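Lab meeting minutes (informal)
Scribe: AK
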Amino acid sequence: MRRLTLAVGAFALIAGTVPAWTAASAAPDPARAAGTVPAGLAAQKIAWEPCFEEPPGGDGDDGEAPPSLPPFMKRMDCGTYAAPLDWKNPGGKKIEIAVSRLRAASGHARGAVLINPGGPGASGIDMPLAFATDQKGNPSALGKDLDLVGFDVRGTGASDSITCDGKYYGSTLDPRDRRAKNVERLLAAAKKNAAACRSKLAAYVTTAQTVRDIDLLRSLLGQDRIHWLGYSAGTWLGAQYAAVFPKHAGRFVLDSNTDVTGTWQGLTGLQAKGFERRFSSDFTAWAAAHDKRFKLGRSKAQVRRTFEGVRKAIAKDPLPLLGGGDLHASDLDAYAASAMYSKWSFPQLADDLRVLRRYTGVKVRSTALGGGVPADLAAVAKRVHAAPAPHFSGPSVYYDSEYATFTAVTCNDTKFTGTVKANVARSAKLGKKYPLIGYSTISDPCQYWKRPAGALALRKPTGKGAPPVLMVQSTHDPATPYEGAVRTHRALAGSRLLTVKREGDHGLYASGLACVDKAVDAYLINGVLPKGDTSCTAPSLNSVLGDGSEPPMVEMGAKAYGLASLPADPIARAAVLAKHFGLKS
C-alpha cells in the first residue's frame, strides 16, 4: 500500500484471515461473457487532447514566465472514457474514468504499458511523466517503442470520485493510551469515519470492478494484451487483472508486493512488523552513525529511546503550534512512519527529531517556549501536518478522494473478520511488539463497514494461463513487507522474484538502482525474464546519504526541466513534474 497516514487510521489489519476467493470453476463471470459490454461502450473513442499547454509566457504562479514544455510532454495526451458503474449491470448507469497516454517516442508503438502507483486509490494519471526520461534527463528506453498509459481508478483523482465529506475523526487521539475512556473514543471515531466514507458510489469502488474498467481501456487502446507496471497496491490490482483476464495479460512487473493470497486486513498486521523493522534497523542505525550532527544517540537503542522520550513528552503535553492547535503524539507517529517509505526522508526526520528533542526536554522546555513557538519548531510542525496538494478540482472530484477510495477498496474487497473487542486486543498485542504503528490498528474503519451484498468477487491469483510476472522487492520494505512478497511469489506460477538486499525503499524501479532498472527494462521492453529468482545488493545508507547534510533529493535530470532537483521516488517525481508544468484536469 503506497500511502500511510496513521492519522486516518487506515491500517488496522489483522493477520491470518483468508478471503473467499471465487473458484476457477465458478459460474461464468458476467463481465467476461460475450456481449456483456454494451455496443456503445465498446465502440466509444477516447477524445485525446494534449495534457499540457505550451505556456504563453509571464503567467507563472511566481510572476515569472512558466517553463517551456520539454519535448516529451508534447506527446502526452489526456482523455476520458465511460464505464459501467456496476459491471454486473453493464447496461446501467455509467461513470467516467480519466486516462493519459505518453505516445511512444519512435511513433510506432509495439504495445502499451499501464502504470499504477498503488494506494489503493492513488491518482495515476501523471505516472507516465516519471518514465519518459532516464535519470540524466535523456529519453528513456521504456518510452521509445511503448505507449506509457496512466489512469485514475474509479473513485479517485479526475475520474468520478468519492469523498468522506472531508472529515476524519480521532486524529489527535493517542492509540497507545489504552484507558477505557480513550479506547471508547478511538472506536467511536473509527465508526464515524466508516459512516462518513460510505456512499452509493463507494459500494462500487472495488478491485473487482476496476479490473473490468482496465480491460475496457485495453480494448479502447486497440491492444490484445496490455503490459503492466504496478507499485504497492498496484501489485494487488495487477494480480487480479491477470487472474480475471489471463489471455489479455502481457508482461507484468509487480514492484513492492502486497500479499495477494491474503486480505487487506491481514496486510496491515504484517505492516506493523515491516514499519518497525525499517525504523528500528535502518533509520536508527543511520542516525546513530551520525550522532555528531543529530545528537539522537550513538546506538540504535539510544536513538529509539530518544524517539520514545520525545513521544512521551508530547503525549503528556502536546506542543502548541503557531496559528492554533497542537502537535500530538499521533502526529509524530504518522510523520515518522511516512518517512520510512524512502531513505531520502531520513535526514529530515532525524533533524526534526533533534529539534523536538530540544523543545521537549524537561530542563529547557519552559524557557524555550516561554515567548511563543520558535521558528524551527514551527517549521517542524508544518512538515508534520503537511497535507498533499490536490491534483484536480471540479465537479465530482474531491480533495479527499484518495483516502475515500483507499477506505472503500480495502473495506469492500475482503471481509473484516473478528469482533471489535478482538480487534482491540489484537491491536494492543501488535502495539506491544511493534509500537511504531501497531497500536494504531485499533482505528480501522473496516470493522464498522457494511460490505455491499452481491458484489463482484475477487479471483484467486495463481498465475495460470498468463505470462510469468517479474516481482521486485526490497528486504526491509515497510508498507509491503518481504514476507508477503514471498507468499505472492509462491502463489503465482512461473513468477520470478528479484530481491534487493540492504534496501528498504518502497517502490524500486526507476529510483536509481541499476540492477532493478536493467531487469525491469529487459522484461517490459524485450520480454526477457531472469532465468530464475535473483538478487542484488543496494549501496549502504551511509554511502548514499552521507550524514544527511545534502538535500534529501537527487538531481535525476532536473536541470532538463528547469528544476533544481527531483525526488528519487518515481511516483513523487511524476507528481512534481505534473504540478510544475500544469497538468490539465
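Next up, CB showed the second protein from the same session:
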Amino acid sequence: MNLDYGTNIDPAGVGKRVKMLIVDDEAVICEGLRYTIDWTKLGVEVVGEAYDGKEALRLVEEHGVQLVLSDIRMDGMDGLELAKHLRQRHPAVQVVMISGYEDFEYARQAIRLGVEDYLLKPVDIEELSSVVKKIVAGIRTGDKEEKDREIELWLSGMARHGSAYGKEPPPSLDGVQFRIVATQLADFHERFADMEAERFEEIQEAWLLGLHRNLEAGPFRALSVFDHENLLITFLASEQRAELEAWDERLSSAMGSLDPGAGGRIYGGASSVYEDLEETADRCAEAVRLLALHVLDGRRVLTADYGDAAMFGRTLPAFDITETVQGLVSAFFKQDREEVRRAVEGMVRFCRESGYLLPEFWNLYEELFALLRQRLRKSGMTGLDYARRGQPDPNIYNSYAGLETVVLEDMEELQRLIDQNGIDKSYWIVEKAKKFIVDRYRTDLKASEVAAWLKITPSYFSYIFKQSTGKGFTEYMNEMRIDQAKNLLATTQDKVFEIADKVGYKEYKYFVSVFKTYTGMTPKEYRGLRVCKEASAGGGNTAAGMESAND
C-alpha cells in the first residue's frame, strides 16, 4: 500500500515563484545575497530587501512574502524578534536565519520560534541553495495540498466540517443532540503501512460498517467519512435527548466489539455532546485531539471529560537534550551505530514513561536534531543536509514505536552522510585518541600504547596527531596534565607531590621542571601567587592558603 501523499512539484523556475525577502542591516550583504545566487532557477522571486525587522514586517505584509532570509543580529528589531512576530502574525511564512555567531543558544531560540533552518557565516552558497530549494518545494506542495483539501472539504459536506465552511445542514441530519467520534487503527505504521491496497480497503470497510452496526440502535444514527485512510470521522445524531451515560454506554459497547480484522485494534476519541450544528467543526477537532491521549491510557474510547482530567495541572519532566546530543556526537565519531540506537531508545523510553504525548515527543526531537546538526557542523563535518521529511503523519505514525523508526532512519542517514561527506578518517582516529587520553592521562601513557589501541603504527599515529592538534603527543600530554595541576593547586589543600602523582607524574622533580617550563614558575610560586590574588580580591582564607610549608 502506497502511503506517500506527496504531490509532484514543477521544476524550479516553472509556475508561480515563491516570494522572498532578504533582511540584513548591512546593505552590501543584502546585495551580495540577492545577486550571488540565481534565485529564478530556484523558483524564487526576491521582492525586496529590508535593513531591520520592523521594515521587514511591513514588506512581508505589503508583498505577501512567503520566505524570509534574515541575519540574526541587527540594530533595532533583530532576527529572533522578527521570527517571533512572524510566527504570531504570519505563521505560514518560512524563515531561514544566517548568523556569524556560533552559539547554541541562538540556534535553540531560533528553532523554538519555528525557524526552518539556521546557517552560519560565511554562508556556503550550495548549502543555502539546497535549503531554499527544499523550502520552495514544501511551499508549493502546501499550496497544492490546500487546493486539494478545499475540494475534499466541499465533497465531505457538513458531516465532517459543520457550517464553518458556509454550508447549510441537509434535512437528513436533523436531530436534537449530536456527537463526533474520531477513530483510528492503533500501531498503524507497524501493522498496516505495507499492506496491499486491496486488503486494506477490506479493513476499512469492516471498520466503517462494524462501527455503524454497533452504534446505530434506538435513537442513534451515524454518518462517517474517511478524513484520512487511518482517520474515520463519524457524525452521530440522536432523535431524542439522552443522558451522557447513555451516550457513553453506547460508545463503549460499540468500540468494545469492533474488530476490523488482521489483528488490528481500533481506538477513538468522542467529543462533547452538543445541540447546535454550527459547533460541528469544533467538535470534530475536539474528537481528533483526544486521539493523542491514547498513549497515556489504553482504553478503547476517550471522552472529553477524560481529556480535561488528564490534562489538568499536567507537568512534564525536562529532558536533558544537551547530554543526549553529546552522546550522539560521540557515537557518530566512533561510527558506533549500536550506541546511537541505545541513545534513541533512551530518549523514547524517557518520554513514554514521563507521559509525553507523541506531538510533544516529536517537538522535543526536532529541537534535538537541530542542535545535533549544529554540533556536528562545528566539529568539522560537512554535507549533512538532506531532504528530511517534515513532521510524520500522526495518523500513520500513531505510536512511539512508529516515531522511533523515523528517528532511527534520520540517525542512519546522518551517519551515512558523515561517512560519505564528513571529515576524513584521520580526524576520526584523533578524536578517538583524545578520548582515550582523557581517560588515562593520569597513568604513564605512551604514544605507542595509544597507537596499539587504535591498531595503527606509532609513526602514523604521531604524524596525524601532530597534523590535527598542532602538537606532539608529549607536548599535548604535558599541557593537559599541567592544566589539571594548576586547577588542583588553586582549589585543593593537596601537597605538591600528591598533585604531581594525581596528574600522572611519578617523578616529583620532573613535574616541577615541566610545570616551570609551561608556566614560568614553580608549583609553590604559582600557588602563592593565586593566594595573593585571592586575598587582594577579598577572597579571605583559601584552601591554598592553608597549604603546609612542607611543600
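CB comment: The beta strands are 18-23, 44-50, 67-71, 94-99, 117-120, 177-185, 220-228, 231-238, 266-270, 301-303.
No objections, moving on.
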